[in-house]
Prior knowledge:
With about 475 residues, this protein is α+β, with helices and mostly antiparallel strands. It contains eight helices and 25 strands.
Amino acid sequence: MNKSVKVAIPIVLILVAAAAGGGYYLYHQKRQAPAGKEKAAQGQVLYTCAMHPFIIKDKPGTCPICGMQLIKKVEGTQASAEEQKMLGHVSLSPTQSVMANVATVPAEYAPLSKEINAVGIVQYDQSRQAKVTAWVAGRIDKLNVNTVGAFVSKGRPVAEIYSPDLVAAQQEYLLALRSRDQFKKSTIDAISQGGEGLVASARQRLKLLGVKDEQIAGLEKAGHPNIKLPIYTPLSGVVIEKVVQEGQYVNMGDPLFNIADLSTVWVEVEVYENEFSFVKMGQRVEILSQSYPGKTFAGRVSFIYPFLDPKTRTVKVRVELANPGLKLKPDMFVNAQIKAPLGSALVVPATALMDTGKRQVVWVESQPGMFEPHDVQVGARVGDKVQILSGLKQGDKVAASGGYLIDSESQLAGGSGGGGHEGHAGAAAPGAAAPAAPGAAGQHQGHGAPAAPAAPKKGGGMDMGDMKM
């Protein structure tokens, strides 16, 4: 063998051994690759951006798109029960609380009174209205009241009427009186007692024609019929309608005047259907009128109408009140204030409540700087307070201001929050961004104040390998 062949043979043997060793190494690497991937998937901590959950990195840093600090990524299926519970929590640093104007107020029991404001119209008291009618057909010879609005008294006649039928009835009564005196002289008991029956029958007829007992007594004393019979009103009040004229002929039962007693009036208040359940019989009502600024009229609820107006969606409530000086006029528009006591109730500020339509949520400070959402059931809203029926207990500190900012922080962190936006950041993709521990969302990996966003990389610095679509 020459010298060149002797040198080539060892080189070939070395190359063959290297190729065999490399093949053996690659073979073992391929077999161990699946197990390694599973182990990395279980043990490796990944980081993502709350605003861009498709950005996935294996170490902390800043988002290449918006510059926000990356947060730990927790897969929903791999999170423990404690981590799942903490997903909805939001932690704020003292600096963030000041910047977001977050203020907490404890839920406390307080006497609550529902105030209902409504409009109403002054009406006549229907139990204090009457009509003056003709009890007998005849001619109105004299009217003592000639104008609407005049005050009439129950003991004074309002008109005088001439009626032939009334004159005949008076004559019959006088004749019965004389006959009774003659019949008393008879020795026969049936005849002597028959005169009393005639007098009683004639007296009853006069009463049916509207003649009063004192008028009958005057007739007996005078001994002759009265041509004109006075007509009286059944109650004292104001004439609200004048129907007849002097000299007019009327029939039995025809109305002459309408009288109303305005010393007491009604106010019919219209209460909306979502508030009338708070109105009870006997409740005090304050009536205010623009005609008398600063003056308040007090009344009581006397009746709640059993039907609803389909056009205005209101229920009428009748308020009865005194009317000294007749200041309240019928058909006046007034404002009514009804105060319905609700007793002692658990209340929170109305600004603490977030109403999504399906849920009503308040943010409760479970630990200093840490907030969690509580679903609550609310009752009446009174001013700046709202009644809590369930979901809170006395002493719970709720976010009276800044609740919407806390909810927004929860949404950005991937929690369900209280706003009902479950389809935004929290469900953008399977395994979307969520805080791994308290403080991850609000404090950005435990730093006291929010770090300034880093400037995005220039010149195409964003690595497409960081994205998981």
